[in-house]
Amino acid sequence: MLCSVYGNNICEGYYAGGVCTSVLTPFPDVLTNLSRSSNQTIASGTIATILGALVQFQAPKYCTEAVIPLLCRYTFPTCDPAYRMPTYQPICRRDCEVVRDFLCREPWAAMLRLLALLDFQYLDQPDCDPLRNTEAGDSPMCINTLNKG
Fold first, then answer.
1. How far does the chain reach from its first CA to its final CA, in angstroms?
2. Domain around 27
3. How many domains is the chain partitioned into structurally?
4. N or C: the chain end with fewer CB closer than 10 Å?
5. Cβ count within 10 A of residue 104
6. How far is the CA of 60 from the CAs of 2, 63, 101, 102, 128, in angstroms?
7. Considering the domain boundaries, does residue 132 fall inside one?
8. Which of 44, 92, 45, 51 is nearest to 68 (CA)?
9. Domain containing residue 26: CATH number
């Protein structure tokens, strides 16, 4: 489903495939910022590169399993269907902090160093601090990336 363009944002279906497919397929639309020349395929490839680096860094499986939905949902935020204009649903700050501070403490730092080396416009470094302290269900609802239910 395609929403109307509002400013530099548009809601569009996720089409890039790759590691984010299983995370994003249940959701109809993701937010794309047109001013960044966002390219889902390139961003998805970068996520795959980061995951490959985490595996080489010997990150524990529970870390990589937590990072995949976090990176995918951070990079491709879901459009909030409650609004008439493209409005994204942020990931929950608590989830981001748990992955950063507990599940993937050392691999997280390595991932940020890799992103800094790549230094290009398609993927932001995940930053938990600016995310709002909302709970799932609050408006605008944040996206829980850790619970499977």
1. 24
2. 9-118
3. 1
4. C
5. 22
6. 38, 5, 14, 12, 21
7. no
8. 51
9. 1.10.2000.10
Cα atoms in the 13 Å half-sphere on the side-chain side of 53: 19
Q: b/e for 28-53, b at 16 or more Cβ within 10 A?
A: bbbbbeeeeebebeebbbbbeebbeb
Number of H-type helices and E-type strands within the chain? 5, 4
Q: Label residue 77 exposed, middle or buried (CB < 10 Å: 0-12, 13-18, 19+).
A: buried
Q: Which residues contact 56 (CB under 8 A, 6 or more apart)?
A: none
Distance, CA of 45 to CA of 71 (rounded, Å) = 12
pLDDT in tens, the chain (149 residues): 445 566 777 788 777 678 888 888 777 788 777 665 557 777 788 888 888 888 888 899 999 999 988 888 888 887 776 766 666 677 888 888 999 999 988 888 887 777 777 655 556 677 888 887 765 555 457 778 887 54
The one-letter amino acid code at 9 reads: N
Structure tokens at 92: 């929950």
Instruction: Please give the Cα distance from 59 to 56 (Å, whole number).
Output: 8
The reported pLDDT for the residue numbered 101 is 92
